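Practice set, problem 2.
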Amino acid sequence: MTNHLKQRSQQQPSTIRRASRLGTALTGVLLLTGVAACGDQDSAPQAQAEATVARPKSEIKLSDTAVDMPAQMPGGLVDVQLDASPSTKRSHHLAFFRRNDGVSVKQLEKASDAEFESLVTYEGGNAQVNAGASQALTFDLDPGNYTVIDFDEQQNMLIGETTVGARTQGAAEPTAKGTIKLGPGMKITLPKGFDGSGVWKVVNDDPSLPHEAGVGRLAPNKTSADAVAWAKDLNGPPPIETVGGFGAISPGHQGWVDLGPKQDPGNYLVYCALPGSDGVLHLAMGMATEFPVN
């Protein structure tokens, strides 16, 4: 994964903001997660650890100059609402990075691309929030100290820190239509009947690599092979347009994404466009699965 913190600090250090409250994001194709039904309290002693507690909620307000978010968040399953100011002039792609214990923000900025990936855990993110729009996500956050990044489409960043506390015990998982499996290797397995609408669970089954689940509409007469070919050299306009998805998560991690109502008829992809440590996009290595919307 490219060390965006290092790249940005070298290029335009004056534009990096340390929001005292928070910030979030990832590379241009980051995606979102969501949803939220509350569980009821279970009085059975043996079942008290089951999913019976309403998930905690957090709100993030996005503008051109700051990411307004609590300095502390609960751990475990958390519903997050992203709200972009109607006056914002930029898009917002957000990502959560949990820093390994003892790792500082300055260490991340100085790390090489190879070192960066060994210093953090990828905890998820979103695709894009534009002016006046909102997105709802459900994260499964590990306790610890986080660096959160908000990219726009020109890779300008807002950056901040937050601390995630202990996990909320017994919080209910969102009700999902099925599970999108990322990996192992450069493959994406979609559940039977996947149509790109509603709420889906996303899990990373890869033993070593972070992955994301981007959802994109293919241009007319284009296929997944065209998307893979484009990702190899990035020449010309992309043959896919991102319409949603869930951001990068490390191996063994999970999240939930609400893809909204049914998309217009056409051919779509679920794909991972994260760059590896060598800079090659996972999409360029064939990490995409096509599905139709009829």
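Problem 2, part (b): a different protein.
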Amino acid sequence: MQRTPIIARAATGLLLGAAALLAVLPDAARAAWPDKPVTLIVPSAAGGAADLTARTFAQFLGARTGQSIVVEDRAGAGGIVGTHAAKIAPHDGYTFLLSTNSTHSANQFLYKSLPYDAQQDFRQVGMFGTFGTVAIARPDAPYKTVPELVQYAQAHPGKVFFGYYSSSSQVPPELFKARAGIKIDGAAYKNITQIITDLRGGQIDFAFVDYLTAMGQIDGKSLRPLAVTGAQRHPSWPDVPTMDSYYPGYVVEGWLGLSAPAGTPEDIVQAMNGYMAQALQDKATADKLRALGLMPKSMDVPRFDAFVKADTQRWKEWVDVAGIQPQ
């Protein structure tokens, strides 16, 4: 009878035990993540709220992990270019998309076809926060409130114009147009900077822009805030009413988060969500995000996934009410 030495039997037992342990441990436990640079794709231009949010988080994540975090701006077509680039990136846990209400909620109702499916092609990772927009006009405009703007538009039908720079940014003014029952027209712009220039120059009459863009203009008295689309008044402008106070139910908010290409390992998705939660709990990081006009809000993976699905339905309703036809 062949006998196996005790030492050999013990070694064999240890090996089998180790193999069994590896079989049940998550991938993150087998190898440290991240062990190389991580890329965050931003589907909009440098200097905007999404880009600055990504860079703020990249600074935090880099410090926590000791790895380089690359922010790659891929602007174009209302976020479609960058989102598609993230979709086709390797799903190895080293590429993430700075996802937004435009890329994952609104675009599917604003475009006839998209080169991606927000639900099927991505794994939702987590949220950074929400933001509203603010209606702004020139300080010398003959209207200083929303009711006065409505009266002015009624007295000048077809002669009042608003600016918008993306399909989703067209929703707030079109929704206002529908709720107020006024005849106003929109002018499409390539970027928000051109809107501000023409608004100050009198080429257009008003616009809804994100809080970050508006802050400098409002603080510098170059433009006047009329109302915000968020559920609550903005802390920086406590005297500026909400659109909901004029038209009950008129609440249009956007959001910024992270999504990963479908197939990204679940343990890495959970790990990244954990880093996002830590970032929002970090006072310095959270304060930077608030300065960008973002209201920090953390969500775990299941909750964020459910939020995106619910937000998709909200945008569908808003687009329907606004009467916007897909491009």
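Answer key, part (b): The chain has two domains: 36-131+253-322, 133-245. The first helix runs from residue 6 to 24.
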